[in-house]
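Predict both folds.
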Amino acid sequence: MKVKTILVSQPAPGTENSPYHELSNKQKVKVDFRSFIHIEGVTSREVRSQKIDFSKFSAVIFTSRKAIDNYFRLAEEMRFKVPDSMKYFCQSEAVSFYLQKYVVYRKRKIYVGERSFEDLIKLIKKYKEESFILPSSDKLKPSIPTDLDKLGIKWKRAVLFKTVVSDLSDLENVYYDILVFFSPSGIKSLFENFPDFKQNKTRIAVFGNSTVKAASEAGLRVDISAPTEEAPSMTMALKKYIVEVNKR
């Protein structure tokens, strides 16, 4: 079956030169975007219930922009003035640059990993005397606490925001040729919104091994997956599939 419509389970890209726009224009397919999940910040009361006291930490580990937003939001709510001496360990350059929203960048001690958490671990290892806080969502890659424990450092995780299933009831009678997922949470959202969902002729595209696993466990047939050597991005995987089926 030819592909005419695609639903990507993420927010619409904020730029016109997105590869999804190029895919839509060149392959003559309609691409819609809809967040299947969203983030909700926890309350200061929930932070206290975790026995978290921001003043007890001399360094913060940031793995995402959401972690930065919620750390500074809760610090303000809890009337904690983040000291100028605070050290910031950021997983990537993009995350570190986002810190400028809250601190004077050039006046702070900021340490930046190349991209992965494994890169950041090498930097954290040099500062074992610090007391680290890791702001995170309720979903955390299991290897992160394992790697931090191996270092033998003093650290504590603080769940400051949660991944919540979005309401998709308005899509109940809407059909798409391809549904695109990027996380197990997206798969969970699909079935929480539509418990009786039947895949039938709908093609499922997934990104990442954990999403493939979640889709398979949910009884879905995975038709398109990325990353692969031929298609390192989802848009490349979609293009490859669409070119093949639409030429028939």
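Second protein follows, with its predicted structure tokens after the sequence.
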Amino acid sequence: MSLAYLPEHADNARLALDLAEREAAHLAYTHRTLYALPIDLAWVRSLPEREDLAEKIDAFIGRFGRLQDHIGDKLLPRFSALVGAQPKSLLDVLAYAERMGWLESAEEFIGARKLRNLLVHEYMSSEELFFEALQSADPATKMLLDVVARIQNYAKQIGLRHD
């Protein structure tokens, strides 16, 4: 009999995936509703007068950052440990996740991390940079949601999840 994963890491991996799924669902909703709007530079400039839109932006930025952090800090490291890998740094974790097919590109993930910082810091200081960050956040969000979906599929393949 061969093991598909190390059972002592199963609970932590399941917990990380459960949280990632909840965070991904919230981000997907906010992403869908935000990007259904006609976002352009004039729209960004109107944010100070539009509390409803500012609130939506705040929700998006927070959810984007939380999912990105959770994937890099918990989900990928715990799934790496689940299969016996012990990468030390975030770069090692991302490289391993890329080799496993959980992540399309470690470089894109690092870009999403930098983007999160831009979204937070440029929101109130530079309309042009914030607009560019919002444009980049659309595909970056899809990448983060894809990572969660890939891990879900992997968990099913190895018998960690049966739903």
